[in-house]
Amino acid sequence: MTEEQYITALKNNPHGVRNIPNPTEEMQLVCVEQNGMLLQYIKNPTDRVIETALAQSPRAIQYVDNPSDELLISLVKQDWAVLEYIQHPSDEVVRIALDQSGWAIRYITNPSEELQLRAVETQYDALQYIANPSEQVQMAAVKSNYLALRYIQNPTLDILKAAVLQDPQAMRQITNLDLETVVELLKVSTLILGYVPKQLGLTVDMVRQIITEMIANPAVEDRYVRELVTNPAIGGRQSTWPIDILSLVDVYGSIEAKKIAIDQYLLY
């Protein structure tokens, strides 16, 4: 058969290239233009053939011997998932892929803590693809989005505190919640009161005592007092937690707590 006849045949059936001992560049191009993955059947493809194959199917990179970093970088910028088909990617290639999507971490064998942090800071739920993440990595994910708790087994109290600070709705993501944990979390934010299950046995007196201890501290956080004053779950007799916060601050609050409470009350 002539080259022209081969090309005509390959246009109809590009897979036929696997049966041609030494296809010309034009024959190769006809095939990879239709299906880039056919690169696997071509020995010693030219740069032009490789470029054409990758343009048609970036996954064909797995059939390229010793690809340059420049080529790999251009590919992961187009599609981070191509990282799955790159053997031994450089740190730069990995970082660029992670900047596109934190999920790219799933294609990295034994990623360093630095890369894990980059992944969860880009996309909090990348945490699900990290085996045994350190507390620092867990913390970064939770600070990005409290829903990261879904992917943490047995989170530490510090992780839980960071989660409820990020959003009190994080309480809904805490499994095996107990009274002791609730008490500790109340010292971080009283906004969680709207999410405390009644069956845990938290009482009004317990809440009052925790608040009293917090506002008596001269170093009480500005945020804590402001949240306390504006917390809709705490208030009059009809509320779930009938505690007169301003009276409590007036009697037990430190000077700093009183200043913050009055300032917030005037703004509210």
Question: Could you explain the architecture of this structure?
Answer:
The structure is a single chain. The protein has 13 helices and no strands. It has 268 residues and is an all-alpha fold. It has three domains: 1-62, no CATH class; 66-163, no CATH class; 177-268, no CATH class. Helix 2 packs parallel to helix 3 (47-56) and helix 7 packs parallel to helix 8 (157-166). The relative contact order is 0.05. The model has no long low-confidence stretch (mean pLDDT 93).
Order of helices and strands: HHHHHHHHHHHHH
Counted by DSSP, the helix tally is: 13
Q: Strand portion, in percent? A: under 5%
Distance between the termini: 87 Å
What is the 3D shape? rod-shaped
Category from helices, strands and their pairing:
mainly alpha
Catalogue the unreliable spans.
none
- What is the typical, i.e. mean, pLDDT? 93
Q: Give me the count of strands.
A: 0
State the major sheet. Answer: none
Number of structural units classed as domains? 3
Helix content, binned percent = 40-55%
Radius of gyration: 30 Å
Protein name: DUF4116 domain-containing protein
